[in-house]
Design brief:
single chain, 2 helices
């Protein structure tokens, strides 16, 4: 019985060794090629990330500049609108004074007639 168990165990070890050699690791050349491709892909991804970061920084700078220019333009527009409002108030005041003067003159003419 012991001999039979040893024979079965030996056959199992031999079958395992044979299966292991068939399913074993790939040749070193294939692994090296995959590593090189993986390194190239990682390098490409890192470069893409760097390019994207640079583009975002540039876009952010442009955006800040445009926002600042918009703020400056709004300030100028506000100043211009204030000047226009003052001019309109002056025109209104002058028109009122002229109407009063003209009304007085018309009243004077009417009284003379």
């Amino acid at each position: 019985m012991r001999t039979r168990n040893i024979a079965i165990f030996s056959a199992a070890v031999l079958a395992g060794a044979l299966a292991g050699s068939l399913v074993g690791p790939r040749p070193a050349e294939a692994v090296a090629r995959e590593l090189i491709e993986l390194q190239r892909d990682v390098t490409s991804l890192l470069q893409g990330q760097k390019d994207l970061s640079t583009q975002v920084t540039q876009d952010n700078t442009v955006m800040k500049t445009l926002i600042q220019q918009s703020g400056d333009n709004v300030g100028k527009l506000s100043s211009t609108m204030s000047s226009l409002q003052k001019s309109m108030q002056d025109v209104q005041a002058n028109s009122g004074a002229r109407l009063d003067t003209m009304s007085t003159q018309v009243q004077g003419l009417s009284d003379n007639l």
